Amino acid sequence: MSPRATKPLQPASTDPAKIRNFCIIAHIDHGKSTLADRMLQITGIVDDRSMRAQYLDRMDIERERGITIKSQAVRMPWELNGETFALNMIDTPGHVDFTYEVSRSLAACEGAILLVDAAQGIEAQTLANLYLAMENDLTIIPVLNKIDLPAADPEKYAKELADLIGGKPEDVLRVSGKTGMGVAELLDLVVDKIPAPVGDADAPARAMIFDSVYDAYRGVITYVRVIDGSLKPRQRIQMMSTKAAHELIEIGVSSPEPIPSQGLGVGEVGYLITGVKDVRQSKVGDTVTDSVKPATQALPGYTDPKAMVFSGLYPIDGSDYPVLREALDKLKLSDASLNYEPETSVALGFGFRCGFLGLLHLEIITERLEREFGLDLIATAPSVPYEVTTEDKKTVTVTNPSEYPTGKITRVSEPLVRAGILTPKDYVGTIMELCQSRRGNLLGMEYFGEDRVEMKYEIPLGEIVFDFFDHLKSRTQGYASLDYEEAGEQDSDLVKVDILLQGEQVDAFSAIVHKDKAYAYGLMMTERLKKLIPRQQFEVPIQAAIGARIIARETISAIRKDVLAKCYGGDITRKRKLLEKQKEGKKRMKMVGRVEVPQEAFIAALQGDEEVKKK
Amino acid sequence: MPADGSLPVGVNIGAEQRTMSAYVHVPFCRVRCGYCDFNTYTATELRGTSQSTYIDELAREIELSGQVLARSELPVRALTSVFFGGGTPTLLPAEDLVRALELLRTQHAFAPGVEITTEANPDTITDDYVQKLAEAGFTRLSLGMQSAVPSVLATLDRTHNPASVAHAVSLAQQAGLEVSIDLIYGTPGETLEQWQESVEAAISLGTGHISAYALIVEDGTALERRIRRGELPVPDDDLEADMYELAEKLLSAAGFQWYEVSNWARSPDQRSVHNLTYWQGNDWWGYGPGAHSHIGGVRFWNVKHPAAYAQRLADGHSPAAGWEQPDLTAVALENVLLGSRIREGISTAELDNTAVASLIADGLIDGTSAINKRLVLTLAGRLRADEVVRRLTFS
Questions:
Q1: What is the pLDDT of residues A543-564, one digit of tens each?
Q2: Distance from the A563 Cα atom to the nearest Cα atom in chain B, whole angstroms
Q3: For A495-606, CATH number?
Q4: A253 with A265: CB under 8 angstroms?
Q5: Residues of chain A falling short of pLDDT 70
Q6: Is B334 an 8 Å CB contact of chain A?
Q7: Which of A31, A171, A282, B251 could cross-link with A145 by S-S, CB 3.0 to 4.6 Å?
């Protein structure tokens, strides 16, 4: 198809009435990227030849996993009834961990396409993002995607969507990102339905940062939506949260490659380059203003991202520690929400305690470290921030079990989340069982269509960071989806369980757990370690303890036979070489007191793997 | 190693202080036992060589060894021991063994009181056979009894009749040969009681020497595959430790004394001279496919397959496949590894004091001996000799 608009509108001189800013809300795999690709093609800004599948997802990981981590904005020309418009499509991350980034992307738009797989219906994360969009007063355009699939059931899901946001099922547009069917109509609807942006062109400049990306060649690229006033090349700008001032080296729009412009006016979306090298100087949600004539009031909604999940990352090969440090320093440039500090573990050596927005964030960072920097890593069991008050009325935030205060504890509070689980109704019972075992508190249930239910739970974050999602998926054949948001804190009966090898604490296995689960945890870890740690020349007790109280114990009996029976002729060389190899191997052993533990045993224990071959 | 088998320079240094022995490998078996990973072949596996020409091939290597030793300026040293191992040496006609022995005598000469042993399968021994060996100068027969319990023998794929062991022993003793009995413990499924039965049976044979080896499950053997597939239980180290302790108890009660981790003798002069030569760092030449030699600190080994071995020699080349000269650290490790296995032990002079003290404290070496400057393993230490070596050599 050839593009309709042959003369795109010029940035900085576009009437806000001709601008439409929108985003696409969709669940992972529901085809958002494919639809976006199709729009790029239909509007003619990417020619068919250079069309790469899922053009907007830059990083390999994103392409492989089919999810979007970093949002970007693309300006596309579109003509309707003889008038040319500029459509800004703001790509949003689709996962719960990035709720804050999603909320800022939404704040940059006037409308949203609610994209739902016509074979699967709406999922929990989409529901959560839809909720955010409606809270932001966005105009919602419901769309069913993948209607070319044999399994598609557009009637059913159109009704579901209509019930959800109001309107008639027949108003739900049906498209196929794959074939391009319905995409032009969708763009017409965007122009038709979504309101134009409104702002004061004469007021001091205010632009909201909805994303910032690190580029190895250009430094930080900041994506903004201009609310009031305008931004021009060479202008001195100021970040309102930090008061830091920079010069605009370049300003422009993505189309989808960056194209410098004469500036950005009210309602426009584009990028800024100031030459700074660290995304922390260009924070999502912050307001960009003029440094000479600054605005008095920042745009609402800015908060610092807060780490909710903590984990120790260790290189499996200790000599990779400097590589890990450098890799984290580099990733930090492009990920403002990643934070870390050095940490030492008896079991794992030197590593870093890292804070993440959530579990997926942890997974993505670990994967990027392994993939982009060639590191082999082991992550300790994720932990959440606890507020622990001791007898002397001091309160400390504990993000690592090893920081748990000793002595008498008067109060421990833990973060709670409000979780929404969307599931076919057949699995309600099994999900209730799972959530109950995780100390969840059912807040309510709501039916979607005939056979799907949203279950709302209040549940401690610490209970879902470990393997909740895996259990949820496996118990529902993959059908249930989960979304959660922070929901304050609660006091709980929590204790720290330590694992001791011959009386020596093994830091990597300490855990903060509910009192009722302490015994089960202690038993599981002691049994697991018993299977994994090779027998020693002496008996090794493995204990689980709460403070000085032992709650579980296993014993590894001493080796009694450790000798080669036959040592003649050719055996001698073989035996000597074996001993020489053991001598080398001893260097890789971790010592816990007198106990020699191969690092693989610790790693396997952390991974819940009991199949490490003992020597 | 060069094609003519020449050794690196310096192997002659200190040769007068070391004895010289010969090992002759006979790589033939009637059937392969499931636990065995030795370099041995059944008739069908031989391809391109045969048992009948084997002594001719040996003759070439014996001649070659004389040339190699002479080129290295090693003095001619009369052999203190000769050992025919396998495989099953007694699968060859007695005349063949005798001929090989005569070739060795011609090449090296024999020291007074030389110990000449052959391993033997109890089934292959006849009165005539042992008479011929004894007449030719053999002094000792090492019988692979392994067990007295038919079910254990079956697991090991041993085909001999337990009763034939006693017969073979008496034939050998009548011919004036010393006899040694080899036992294996820790066969999958073997109980402590069955092991006791075997040790008692071996003692009752009235020989002067008994060896007891824990079964080693080697990769690539039929036994290993059967265990992996779950057809046989995994041998239990703790049970093997019990078996070793039981053997020590029964043997010492019967008048035997341990002189190496896996070897016991009724009197010091019944200890195997040949065994001791391995642990005392003496020189020996190993003849035959896959045999290892140790001359003046150099260790070298022959090609493994009898056909390749025969071909090398037919081409006028040394059958050696490789060699190594362990460096000082490796030699120190070998000295501790080998020397600590025997009853005389090693001098504590060169050893780390703290390590020695910790070994006494843990009951792995004898305190009184240590104070008298000898490191000697206790019973617990014999079972954990590798740990003793590690503590003495891993710093």
A1: 999 988 999 999 999 999 999 8
A2: 5
A3: 3.30.70.2570
A4: no
A5: 1-2, 48-71, 93-97, 608-615
A6: yes
A7: A31
CATH architecture of the domain with range B327-395: Orthogonal Bundle (1.10)
Amino acid residing at A251: I
**Using a CB-CB distance cutoff of 8 angstroms, which residues of chain B are in contact with residue A566?**
213, 216, 262
Residue keyed to tokens 């319990």: B149
Does any CB of chain B come closer than 8 Å to the CB of residue A300? Answer: no
Domain segments of chain A as ranges = 16-193, 206-290, 309-382, 387-492, 495-606
Minimal-distance CA residue of chain A relative to B287: A569
Q: Which CATH class is domain B15-279?
A: alpha beta
The CATH number for A206-290, chosen from 2.40.30.10, 2.160.10.10, 2.40.30.110, 3.90.580.10, is 2.40.30.10
Closest CA to A501 of A455, A551, A449, A543: A543
Class of domain A387-492: alpha beta
pLDDT at A69: 41
Choose, out of A539, A556, A561, A586, the residue to mutate when testing the contact with B (most B CBs < 10 Å).
Answer: A561
Across the strands, what pairs with A299? none
| Residue in the block written with tokens 């079972």 | B383
What interface predicted TM-score (ipTM) does this complex get?
0.90
CATH 1.10.10 positions along chain B are: 327-395
- 10-residue averages of pLDDT along chain B (395 residues): 90 93 95 89 82 94 96 95 94 96 96 97 92 97 95 91 91 96 96 98 97 94 94 94 98 98 97 96 96 95 95 96 93 94 94 91 92 94 95 87
Is-same-fold flag (A16-193; A495-606)? no
Q: Which CATH number fits domain A309-382: 3.40.50.300, 3.40.50.2300, 3.30.70.870, 3.40.1000.20?
A: 3.30.70.870
Q: Tell me, yes or no, if A569 comes closer than 8 A to chain B by beta carbon.
A: yes
Contact list, A580 vs chain B (CB under 8 Å) = 330, 333
> What dotted CATH number matches A16-193?
3.40.50.300
Q: Exposed, middle or buried, A402 (CB in 10 Å: 0-12/13-18/19+)?
A: buried
Apex B249 CA angle, B248 and B252, nearest 5: 75
- For A224-250, write each residue's pLDDT tens digit: 999 999 999 999 999 998 888 999 999
Residues of A with CB below 8 A from B216's CB? 564-566
Q: Where in chain B is the domain with CATH 3.20.20.70?
A: 15-279
Q: Any CB–CB contact under 8 A between A82 and chain B?
A: no
Q: How far is B219 from chain A (nearest CA, A)?
A: 14
Q: Residue B378: which residues within 8 A CB-CB, separation 6 or more?
A: B363, B364, B365, B366
Longest dimension (CA), chain A: 96
Q: Residue written as tokens 């059912």?
A: A442
Per-residue pLDDT, B166: 95
